[in-house]
Amino acid sequence: MNLKSVISLGIFLSITHRNEVYSEIISPDGGCQELLDSFARATANYTMCTIQHARPISVCEACIDSYLKVLKRYNQILKLYDEHDKQCKEELMNVDRLQVVEKGYHFVEDLWHKASCSACFKKDDQGLTISNMTDTTVKLLDLSELTDACILTNQNTSVNSSQIVCDKCKEDYLNLNSYYNCHKSAVCMDIVDMMNITRYKWSTTLGCCMDRKKIEIPFLLTTGALCLLPLLFYISLYFCSKNTEFNIVLEQTRWQTPVNS
């Protein structure tokens, strides 16, 4: 059985039993095989969760429970024994030349770390990730919610709704943006994507970055003037060369004209 088979098995089990609630307890009768099936389901559920929350990115907040379940099942495989006192790790991993369980686990970990998800959650006394968000993450989500609520409340209230939004929501947006800039090195991809969407909406959709527009006008004028200088130079050079050529022809004509005796 390869990695694709493990994930496919999990997806099949999650679809065919989607209305069932799986117990966290692995029955002794099922042994290591039941543990393997549970690990496959957990891996598939996490993969499905990340796909469903890939855009806008919310994989960390939405998939934390699925991720922790994968970790739990993987650690159980490493530590638990079956009814014959045989270690599940030896039965499921050591004799697996394709290392399917190991690859499935690292596949999940790779997705989790690429999104820097651990940055958004607290850790327990042993340094392990738990489902509680960090204070910084909670604060950023609260500030974002305030900004979004302000924008939603003041949009479409009049013909010039964008300007009203810019005026009334400026303080909320600046508070959010300032707090994010102070903590952006310690946030997960959920927060990064959230800020990118908010900034795009604020500056492009609503057109609230007036200071940037004021700076751009003289910059564009200066750039345009600099672009015209080469053109003016070549035009001047062309007319100067034409004038010089005309003077040379005139001088030659004067010397070639016979003098009447």
UniProtKB/TrEMBL annotation:
Q: Does the keyword Magnesium apply?
A: no
Q: Which domain of life is it from?
A: Eukaryota
Family annotation (Pfam families): OSTMP1
Kindly list the residue ranges recorded as spanning the membrane. Answer: 217-240
Under the cellular component aspect of Gene Ontology, which terms does the record hold? Answer: cytosol
Which keywords does this Swiss-Prot/TrEMBL entry list? Membrane, Transmembrane, Transmembrane helix
This one is known as Osteopetrosis-associated transmembrane protein 1
Q: Which organism is it from?
A: Diaphorina citri (Asian citrus psyllid)
Upper classification of the source organism reads: Eukaryota, Metazoa, Ecdysozoa, Arthropoda, Hexapoda
